[in-house]
Amino acid sequence: MNARALVADDEPLLREHLVQRLRTLWPELDIVGQARNGREAVELFDRSQPDICFLDVQMPAMTGIEAARHIGGAARLVFVTAFDQYAVDAFEAGALDYLIKPVTDARLGQCVARLQQQLRMLQQGPSADTLLDLARRLQRLEGFAKSEHLKWLRASLGSATYLIPVHDIDYLKADQKYTRVAYHDADGKPLEALIRSPLKDLITQLDPDRFSQIHRGAAVNLHAVKRVVRIDRDSAEVELKGRPERLPVSKTFLAVFRET
């Protein structure tokens, strides 16, 4: 099946590697453009009008999510990224698939098959039964996206990558464009890691029954709270289990700990 595609990734080697793998799995696919960032992807899309866009998420100038919102439903959108925490935003932006790097040939092959099926249906025109089935699938997907919360975070230290279970996190603190994650290991030893996602993006993906924002730049795992100490009428501090630091609670978020 013939189709036209755009590939956007700020890492040139990864971008070219994906292009080569797509040409192997889908020889008829015409790669009409390669973009180095989200803004360039939008410009190439407007100029070439491809059927499919493969987008990385974290890119300079404009993110893949922002580019996807510009493209909208004018193309099939596939995200290829090392970060799983943007899946909800990606599907809300209209993604057909979300691939986590490193992507196996089998997983990429599944994505290609799904794209081919979608394009084939578009050419043939969907039946009433097909439209009903798609509506039901979309409803289930939307329900999943709304109910699913992050289960773990991925943090890099040198050449190593660590997976931090969300329930082991004690608190998260904004650190410029990054987030400092304070967590504990299986023995209860307090540890810290820095991840490349801003706190404002992470908060929306955390379970609100477990995590609460306590300050403009901090959120705490409620299960890790030892006690809350009032400083004055408009502020307080949180003491944590197994950690010496105390976290300030601003007036805006005092209601979280108000006794009922």
TrEMBL record:
One GO-annotated biological process of the protein: regulation of DNA-templated transcription
Alphabetical list of InterPro entries matching this protein: CheY-like_superfamily, LytTR_DNA-bd_dom, Sig_transdc_resp-reg_receiver, WalR-like
Record keyword Iron-sulfur present: no
Keywords: DNA-binding, Phosphoprotein, Two-component regulatory system
Modified residue annotations for 4-aspartylphosphate: 56
GO molecular function: phosphorelay response regulator activity; transcription cis-regulatory region binding
Domain Response regulatory span(s) in chain numbering: 4-116
Limits of the HTH LytTR-type domain: 153-260
UniProt-listed SUPFAM superfamilies: CheY-like
PROSITE patterns associated with the record: HTH_LYTTR, RESPONSE_REGULATORY
GO cellular component, one term: cytosol
Highest rank taxon of the organism: Bacteria
Cited PANTHER family: REGULATOR OF RPOS (PTHR48111), RESPONSE REGULATOR RECEIVER (PTHR48111:SF69)
Name under which the protein is recorded: DNA-binding response regulator
Lineage: Bacteria, Pseudomonadati, Pseudomonadota, Gammaproteobacteria, Lysobacterales
